[in-house]
Design goal:
The structure is a single chain. The protein is of the alpha+beta class. It has three domains: 19-119 and 154-204, Up-down Bundle (Butyryl-CoA Dehydrogenase, subunit A, domain 3), CATH 1.20.140; 208-340, Aminopeptidase, CATH 3.40.630.180; 347-486, Aminopeptidase, CATH 3.40.630. It has helices spanning 3-10, 19-40, 48-53, 65-78, 85-101, 104-116, 122-135, 141-152, 155-163, 169-180, 191-204, 221-230, 239-245, 280-283, 317-331, 347-360, 364-374, 381-388, 399-414, 424-431, 447-453, 467-475, 483-486, and strands at 211-214, 250-256, 266-273, 298-306, 337-340, 416-417, 420-421, 435-440, 457-461. Strands 1-2-3-4-5 form a five-stranded mixed sheet, with helices on one face. A two-stranded antiparallel ribbon has the order 6-7. Strand 4 (298-306), helix 15 (317-331) and strand 5 (337-340) form a beta-alpha-beta unit.
Length: 490
Amino acid sequence: MNAPDWITRSVSKLRPPEKSESKVALAQADSAQAATKSVANGPTTRSTRERLKATLRHKEEALSPRVLRRTLEELRAIVDPQVSEVEGGRRAKGVAGWYAGAELNERRDMWLLMSEQFVADAQKVKLAQAQFAAAVGTPDEAVAEVRYRRATVSPRRRLLQRFSAFPEGFRFLVDMRADMLPYLKADKRLQALDVEMEYMFSTWFDVGFLDLRRISWDSPASLIEKLIKYEAVHDIKSWADVKNRLDSDRRCYGFFHPRMPDEPLIFVEVALIDEMASGITPLLDESAAPADLKKATTAIFYSISNTQTGLRGVSFGDSLIKRVVETLHAEFPKLKTFATLSPIPGFRHWLGKNAGAMLEQLDEKERTLLGRAVGFEPPMAQHFLTAADTAPMLDEKSPVRRMLLRCAAHYLGRVLEEGKPMDPVARFHLGNGARIERLNWMGDPSPKGLKQSCGLMVNYLYDLKRLDKHRAQLLQGKIPVSGDIENLYI
């Protein structure tokens, strides 16, 4: 199939969701909200243990006791020790088929069964623990420790393994966890299943099992459509837009799992240019000519998107960047600089709460200059925030512009939450060993960029010789920054 053919047939994917899709999304939200209210009512919420013994269904319960018992029997049949792995997988596939046609609240009952009814045998755990304690210091200690660990493994883990046995099993489990995540905060009974799934996914989706593949304009149409669907940083607005991002001076790479070969788990978009990028607009300019690859010295990572909600908590972004750097360096030996052009998604929200505290750190002269600029002396937080909303119109000498840059430097380079950078993007890149290199005024003048960060963007530099040093600094509570960022501190 040539490109024009599938573009013509697939262009509808770029349009807003149809009414039916919107209704599905609303139904899911309403269902999660209803579950939240049900759990919050406390006394009316019965455990699956109580419901399995009951005769009648309560109003807020999706499955009747009879159907709940039958569902539990089918789940237990999957892990029956008398059946083979193949037969267990076949039975799991049958349950997955039922799940596909079930309502969200019916699915939730299955999650509860998996979470509450497939727990480790308390007596076996207690006995194994006692035997391990007695064996400490003896030649039997190591064997006793292994037996103790085995005793603590729940049948729930075996159940998940059986679901992974049929061909679409990985996809089913990842999607099932994505369904479940909105319910976790309201219903702590689901947390055991969630923790078990996150643990197993961390093993199954270890980077050692993942394939790094380039996504290009010559890739299958279905894969490019997923690039459009999952792009989370800078929305893809047209086919010319996506073609620009896959042009000769660009690279796009994704991690793929052999059991989900047509589904990128995470992907990164890279621009190959001759200097560190200061704004996203030129990189997304569809009419710009491709850069001369012979002059390219810099690789700019300008978008990294996770695609699978169900893999939340499974980290492979740092490994993706390392593998991509190695791949790019092998293809383009002249590349010397590896950096990002990143959004600062938490800045404007943080500033709204902390503008007053930042103003208090100014000396009298700075406060006077800022007051004159905002038209009120001494300037209060609200005056400064109102002026910040006019960021695109501020000239280079504006005290408000200077103050915004200083606040952003403070937010990125000094604000820690539980020992980690507060901004989620900063937390990711700094955790990988990058340092904060430069702030860029009006790096993203889009409505989204202005709302998130007053239009500011930041470069994180990946200095390949200092990654470990930067990680060590971060562990000591000191965020690695360049001299330019330090000069902005108040």
